[in-house]
Write a structure and sequence with these properties.
The complex is a heterodimer of chains A (96) and B (310). Chain A is elongated, with a radius of gyration of 17 Å. Chain A contains 4 helices and 3 strands. Chain A is 67% helix and 10% strand. Chain A is mainly alpha-helical and 96 residues long. Chain B is an alpha+beta fold. In chain B, the strands form 4 sheets. In chain B, strands 6-7-11-10 form a 4-stranded mixed sheet. In chain B, a hairpin with a 2-residue loop joins strand 2 and strand 3. In chain B, helix 2 runs antiparallel to helix 3, helix 4 packs across helix 5 and helix 4 packs antiparallel against helix 6. The model of chain B has no long low-confidence stretch (mean pLDDT 85). The chains are: A mainly alpha (96), B alpha+beta (310). Chains A and B meet through helix 3 and helix 4 of A and helix 2, strand 4 and strand 6 of B.
């Protein structure tokens, strides 16, 4: 389930987006597909990222530079939050 | 539909300018957008704010809404268009008027709903609309994450209860999403069905804390074990192992058990063991005597570095 990868055509079909949009996402570094014999391969995580980008662009009227920045900051935020949770739990286990 | 005070939702006075409304909407949309927000009820809040803006951004609709609002807040004062309408139409109510207004803006659903995809409603032009994705949190134990395997789930969907079988990938980590293709809401027309996404979270474990691919275990040790060194039986997600604790270990010492963590490729993560020195309660005279002799044997000042810095 976690190992699914999509070619560009498959990706566009399951995400229900135009190829041009995917090109732009890759160009802005929002998606970073692996390259296999001149063919892009998208991991399944990319799907959620693509849909998030689409929603942000539409709902918040962001251009793709803004979407890229927002996604990056929000990912980093989430990583930090997880890290804080982990450290808090650890401190707790140390105290009791 | 119940009457909603859009000014309250946007936290603006009714006299706010169009420019203020726009600015506030943009700010709140960024705050509550489910893709960036960490607020608990972000989706509902975002929809509420978007609906308020859709109505208030248009001066005509806003004027109409303002009259309804006036009437809803003061139903006994027959003023404005709502009041006049009420005088001629005994069935008039602020709720009905509000319904009509919403219908004129959003169509038959009579209110702001999420569209086929975007939270803000990507209204499809054609009748072929892909079904909505459904998202759930899937709370599993660290053992389940470590082993992977099949799990049967009962989900409550808008179309009733549904039992699905999920394969949890071996070594799955916190926040990963599992996708069940085509198991979401059915599409309209030729639109394909949406997907179910299950986001992995961990049930609090009595011993381990997960940190990405790694797991950490806090291991209590006695002062003499830390001082003299020992071999201790330590739990890992894959069973017990013996861990050598070197002599002269300090509180907080961190040791690594390679390949005993989570991670997608054969548990690429590690288990970390952090030593926690636990002092035994000293009660009997014999126990006290041991500490007295320790005190005599060592010339040790635990606050030496502090003394040097002050």
């Amino acid at each position: 389930m976690s190992e699914i990868v999509y070619t560009l055509i498959e990706f566009c079909s399951v995400a229900d987006v135009e190829e041009q949009f995917v090109f732009e996402l890759v160009e802005h570094g929002i998606l970073d597909p692996a390259l296999n014999q001149d063919q892009w391969l998208f991991p399944s995580d990319a799907l959620n990222r693509c849909l998030r980008a689409e929603r942000m662009q539409h709902d918040l009227k962001l251009n793709l530079h803004g979407v890229a920045l927002a996604l990056e900051l929000s990912d980093r935020n989430q990583q930090l939050r997880q890290r804080i949770d982990y450290l808090e739990q650890l401190v707790d286990r140390f105290r009791h | 539909m119940e009457f909603k005070d859009y000014y309250k939702i946007l936290d603006l006075p009714p006299a706010a300018t169009q420019e203020e409304i726009k600015r506030t909407y943009k700010k709140l949309a960024r705050k509550y957008h489910p893709d960036v927000s960490e607020e608990a009820d972000a989706t509902a809040k975002f929809q509420e704010v978007s609906e308020a803006y859709e109505v208030l951004k248009n001066a005509d609709k806003r004027a109409e809404y303002d009259e309804l609002r006036e009437y809803a807040l003061n139903p006994n004062q027959f003023r404005g268009a709502g009041g006049e309408r009420a005088q001629f139409d005994p069935n008039f109510s602020a709720e009905n008027g509000f319904d009509d207004l919403l219908r004129s803006i959003f169509g038959d659903q009579g209110g702001f709903t999420t569209g086929a995809r975007g939270f803000g409603g990507r209204q499809a032009g054609s009748m072929n609309v892909r079904g909505q994705d459904i998202r759930y949190d899937l709370a599993i134990t660290l053992e389940e994450a470590f082993e992977g395997g099949k799990k049967s789930l009962r989900l409550t969907t808008p179309n009733g209860n549904k039992t699905i079988n999920v394969t949890i990938p071996k070594g799955v980590t916190l926040g990963k999403e599992l996708r069940l293709k085509g198991q979401g809401e059915p599409g309209q027309g030729k639109g394909s069905a949406g997907d179910i996404f299950l986001k992995i979270s961990f049930i609090k474990h009595p011993l381990f804390e997960a940190d990405g691919d790694d797991v950490t275990l806090v291991l209590p040790v006695a002062p003499w074990e830390a001082a003299l060194g020992t071999s201790a039986e330590v739990q890992t997600l894959g069973g017990k192992v013996n861990l050598k604790i070197p002599a002269n270990s300090q509180n907080g010492r961190r040791m690594r058990l390679k390949g005993r963590g989570l991670g997608p490729k054969d548990h690429s993560g590690d288990q970390f063991v952090i030593l926690k020195l636990v002092n035994p309660p000293v009660e009997s005279d014999a126990e006290k005597a041991v500490y007295e002799s320790l005190k005599a044997a060592f010339s040790f000042n635990p606050r030496e570095t502090m003394a040097r810095q002050s």
